[in-house]
Amino acid sequence: MTIWKYGDDINTDMLFPGKYTYTCSTAEEILPHLLEDLDPTFAGTVRPGDVIFAGKNFGCGSSREQPVLGLKAAGVRAIVAKSFARIFYRAAINQGLLLIECPEAVSAHEPGAEVDIDVEAGRITVGERVFSFPPLPSEILAIQEAGGLLAYTRRRLEAPGH
Q1: What is the pLDDT of residue 154?
Q2: Residue 3: beta bridge partners?
Q3: Which end of the chain is more exposed for a tag (fewer CB within 10 A), N or C?
Q4: 71-92 pLDDT, tens per residue?
Q5: How far is residue 30's CA from residue 18's CA, in Å, rounded to a whole number?
Q6: SS3 letters for the chain?
């Protein structure tokens, strides 16, 4: 697993250039353009299970689904940031992309360090250091586990007693 590290105020245009908004809608169309203006190596190198570490206000900017869809389709395990823009946070929940606010872990990252995320325990291990984060609400965990809000809703509607 690779840790990708970025700074503050990474906006949705940096994650997925706005010039493709109306020409790319499927994961296959979005993937080649992920982070192309911020990190041209990302789209061709990211692997399932990789984790993004970032600074404050990650995902600020316009309200578009493509950045989250692309990161999820690329197999990004989680984004650990100092803080998230609210609209990006909600879009990530809807798509089942795991977001964790843990400023201390972001600051402790060193190139090549291993990272382990234990969501249930609210713990991130970076190298030899362990950091705690507030447990995620059970509803968010259930949506993330289902693969997104749509899958979660379908599952609930198909459950006995509905």
Answers
A1: 93
A2: 51
A3: C
A4: 999 999 999 999 999 999 999 9
A5: 11
A6: CCEEECCCCCEHHHHCCHHHCCCCCCHHHHHHHCCCCCCCCHHHHCCCCCEEEECCCECECCCCCHHHHHHHHCCCCEEEECCECHHHHHHHHHHCCEEEECHHHHHHCCCCCCEEEECCCCEEEECCEEEECCCCCHHHHHHHHHCCHHHHHHHHHHCCCC
Each domain of the chain, given as residue ranges in start order, spans 3-158
Residue linked to tokens 């190198």: 45
Q: Tell me if 117 sits within 8 A of 90, measured CB to CB.
A: no
CA distance 146 to 141: 8
Domain at 3-158, CATH class: alpha beta
